[in-house]
Amino acid sequence: MRLSTVILPIHRWGEGQKIWQRAEDLGFHASYTYDHLSWRTFRDGPWFGAVPTLTAAATATESLRLGTLVTSPNFRHPVTLAKELISLDDISGGRVTLGIGAGGTGFDATALGQDSWTPRERADRLAEFVPLLDRLLTEESVSYEGNYYSAHEARNIPGCVQRPRLPFAVAATGPRGLQLAARYGQAWVTTGDPKLYENGTPEQSVQALRGQFERFADACAARGRNVQDLDRILLTGFTPDRNRPLESLAAFVDFAGRHQELGFTEIVVHWPIPGSDFAVDEKVFEQIAMEAPAQLR
């Protein structure tokens, strides 16, 4: 069981650098950030770009894996994104994971002036986005004409440091997304069942996650892949447990252990942010980071 964290890009780099370096010092497997133009209650405050933030983090750390949770087609194009990712993978020395998903209906969905896409439209775009991005990161020259995205002799030389490309962690719960994760992913990401967040119980959440995991395993089997060969990532904070697992070391070990039994290989927690939904005791958080992984082996 690996333990990772999400660091929201809300700090000017003079302060943000210290947080990313502290994450490495605490022994986190990876530190991710959200790839949004702004997000939820943070919309009217500072919010910096994901790729520049990760690039700066790459130069400020040595061994910490870095990534997005998640990038989406809401305001990204595969051709330009591929160029940025190859550059980031090079600067980091091959430490980048791309978390990728269909996106939602938040600020990103309309910031470029378009109407918010329906769930089906988001799924349609992701189904074209991921395969094209896969080609762009593995082939020197790509031409493609699709329903939503095009590429004309797009060059991506010398390619990723990681071969054949940097890993994809595909966020999915529906059948089409799970098929994409099974085909193109090196990892699968879930936040649980959003319908349970307000009124569900932790027990109901575990059952829902078990069902998601089983459907993902079936999708992998249909592709001739063993689900055990892929990482299974749970991004916490969006299940009925909310922040309770971070109230003590014992509470976290119990929470993580139950999800480890479901088959998850990586748990991701949010870095504490006072006065927000992610406000937790920083000393307890650091104790969890340093001591929990050894108790989950």
* Main β sheet profile: 8 strands, parallel, barrel
What's the gyration radius in Å? 18 Å
Low-confidence stretches: none
Strands ordered across the widest β-sheet: 1-2-3-4-7-8-9-10
Structural class of the helix and strand makeup?
A: alpha/beta
Mean residue pLDDT: 97
Proportion of β residues?
A: 15-25%
- Which bin fits the share of residues in helices? 25-40%
Total of helices: 8
Order of helices and strands: EHEHEHEHEEEHEHEHEH
How many E strands? 10
How would you portray this structure in words?
- By secondary structure, this protein is of the alpha/beta class.
- Helices cover 40% and strands 17% of the residues.
- It has eight helices and ten strands.
- It has helices at 13-25, 50-60, 78-92, 119-138, 175-184, 202-222, 249-262, 282-295, and strands spanning 2-6, 30-33, 65-71, 96-100, 141-145, 150-155, 168-171, 187-190, 231-235, 266-270.
- The protein has an eight-stranded parallel beta barrel with strand order 1-2-3-4-7-8-9-10, surrounded by six helices. A two-stranded antiparallel ribbon has the order 5-6.
- α4 (119-138) packs parallel to α5.
- The longest helix has 21 residues, at 202-222.
- The radius of gyration is 18 Å and the shape is globular.
- The model has no long low-confidence stretch (mean pLDDT 97).
